Every structure is written in structure tokens, then in C-alpha cells.
Amino acid sequence: MIPTITAFERSPDGGKGLARDTRVRWALEEAGQPYRVRPVSFAAMKEPAHMALHPFGQIPTYEEGDLVLFESGAIIFHIASRHAGLLPEEPNARARVITWMFAALNTVEPPILDLSTARIMEADKPWAEERLPLVADRVRHRLSQLSARLGDAEWLDGAFSAADLTMVSVLLRTRPSGILNEFPNLAAYVARGEARPAYQRAFAAQWAFNTGQPQAG
User: Fold this and answer.
1) What is the CATH number assigned to the segment(s) 91-196?
2) pTM > 0.90: yes or no
3) Where in the chain is the domain with CATH 3.40.30.10?
4) Cα–Cα dist 80/69, whole Å
């Protein structure tokens, strides 16, 4: 059965791949699984039909027969659990990959999202000028810890896995701020993720979905 995911009818980033449907598309591409995409407007996201799929009125959602999932991390884990290639078979390695998925979403992503909020949604507040450097420093602190742990390794734990897919997706959100470039090994790590053919397919699909045209180049 071909699953259906939801995505913004028009993503706020204009198709740059920062919306969370892109990471789900990437997981499906890595797994070699076809999928359908149903666009959802901002208004429709708050209507009962979508709220029945996602209780917080967000995207993406994932529908596969009677199964309905929300939260990108849970969806990626489901895809990785059902299909080969994103989770190791060895139990301890598998557990470590899952740990890194949680770390990406629960430890690394929150300050990055806070920075995005401070830069975009709160830029006109009287306290924004004082708060922004503090939020940016929290992001730097997390990235410095991650950078130290990654070191010269290609991926987080052995071969590419759902951990890397999730972490790279999270780190991409730091690119608009320029902070990612302060950590050359992390910037190179993200570039390796973006170079994967499955990511390229996922990005091109969401770009076309948002812009109505194929990706240039």
C-alpha cells in the first residue's frame, strides 16, 4: 500500500527543504518506497479533518491503510523499522542510532527552532536585539558539543542511518543564520547528507511541489 504524507500547500521557506515533510520524503527515498503527497493549506491544517490526523494541526502526517502517524521523528522511525537500510540489524548499534534520533529532535533541534523564532517571529519585539545573541549562543553551544563528538567521522555511528538523516535535517535549519559554517566538520557532514541521491530526489520533489517547476541544475 502506497502511503500518503501531508505537506504545506506552499511552504514558508519557498521550497528550500526546511519543512519537516522533506525529512520524511528523504526517508521514503532512502527506503526505495513510493509515496503520495497531499497538500494542506494553513487554514485546512486547523480544520477538523486534518486535526483528526494531527492533534496539533501541523505537518507532516503519514497515512498507510488504517495507520495514521504524526511527528516526523516517529514517521521516520516507522519507515526505518519497516524497510532495510536506515536501522542496523545488530541490537546495540540499532539502539545507538535510535538514541541519536532522539538527540537530534530533543536536544539539538529545540535551540535551533528558538533561534528561527527569534529571528523571524520576534524580530519586531523591543527585546529582540538583546535576546537574539543569547539564543544564538545556545545554538553554538549545542553545535560545539556535536562537533566535538562527530570529529572526523563520516557519520554519527558507523554507516549512514536514520540518525544521520534526522540530524542532517535538523542542522539544515541553522544554515540561514550562518552558524553552521562556524563548524567545518558539521558543515561537511551536512553536505555529505545533501549529496546522497535519496536526498537529492526528496529535495527535487518538494521543490517542484512548492514552486511548480523542476529544480534548476
Assistant:
1) 1.20.1050.10
2) yes
3) 4-85+198-211
4) 14
